[in-house]
Amino acid sequence: MHTSIYVFSLALGVALAGISENPLSDSFIEKINNIGSTWKAGRNFDANTPSSHINALLGALPEKGNSLPVAHIEVAEDLPESFDSREKWPECASLKVVRDQSTCGSCWAFGAVEAMSDRICIHSGGKSQTSVSANDLLTCCGWSCGEGCDGGYPSSAWNYWVQHGITSGGLYGTNDGCQSYVFPPCEHHTTGSLPACGESQPTPKCTRKCDNSTLNYKEELTFGKSAYNVPRSENAIKTEIFNNGPVEASFQVYADFLNYKSGVYQYVTGAYRGGHAVKLVGWGVENDVPYWLVANSWNEDWGDKGYFKILRGKNECGFESSIVAGLPKL
Q: Which residues belong to the active site?
């Protein structure tokens, strides 16, 4: 049914392979839109944004083999055509939050703690609204998780949750739990009122103590009961999300993705920029094109209010081959 879409994508990539201008330029954005793909490009980043800033946002490193078991998932037969975790579990506040990783390549940690927070709420029936600390995971997991602000391994983040636990904590400057994120939100993009991002920052030191002196770090630890890879199967991924909540996905980012504004993203043109980890919250169909619904961590000024849709069912940019998740210990 959708064969023409995928053939179009391959042909388009070959046709535009020679484009060498700045991928954030108006001319590059215009060429993408003139082709007439399944998505629309627009300005997210200033055309003069340094490559170093873009690179710092992409922190999912290639996994070191199969560090987690592959879950056996009994695929549901009656899954809906469209699904949004925010609508199924409206009582979970974390599902509605778009975080900002700021000037640190911590997407691997953000995608993990976002899904962990959602799943704690979901599996507690809404009784626990604990926000899992991105800062604690980023700073304390150490070498087993990768290189902190220079990138990490999503599967190791989930394994760390099971073996060591991650304390509570929310966004920068909040009192939401033990340890809030150390870097303030900043304006990566051309619209918005946040302060400029500045230079990429080194990984902060692990402290294992709470910002709020009334809280105890160890008492605030959350733990995973299990951690696993989700099989590379569209229906298995859908079943996992439908039954247990959002998952963490990693994929290959090319230059055109930086300009995403609306529609269903599929690769058009541009050089490979790095690996990125995000939170997958649902799926649907738009203009006969199947998609995954995804929350990014570049604040709400990017893309479609912080979200994007990506082609579903064809492992676009490796999206369906690197899905990790786990269940909370309540």
A: 107, 276, 296
Check: pTM over 0.90? Answer yes or no: yes
Contacts of 109 (CB under 8 A, 6+ apart): 134, 137, 138, 141, 145, 152, 157
Residue 167 has pLDDT above 50, yes or no: yes
Q: Tens of pLDDT along 239-254?
A: 999 999 999 999 999 9
Res 112: pLDDT: 98
From CA 29, how far away is CA 42, in angstroms rounded?
A: 6
Structural domains of the chain, with CATH: 50-259+272-329 (3.90.70.10)
Instruction: Specify the pairing of strand 307-311 against strand 260-265.
Output: parallel
Q: How far apart are alpha carbons 249 and 147 in whole angstroms?
A: 19
Could you count the other beta carbons within 10 Å of the beta carbon of residue 307?
18
C-alpha span between 52 and 289 (Å, rounded): 34
Of 209, 230, 288, 215, the residue nearest 3 (C-alpha): 288
Q: Please provide residue 146's backbone torsions phi and psi, each rounded to the nearest 5 degrees.
A: 125, -130
Tokens of 32: 């993408």
Task: Point out which residues pair with 254 in neighbouring strands.
Answer: 272
The answer for residues whose C-beta is within 8 angstroms of residue 210's C-beta and 6 or more apart is: 167, 178, 179, 216, 217, 220
* Exposure on the CB side of residue 129, measured as CA atoms within 13 A: 11
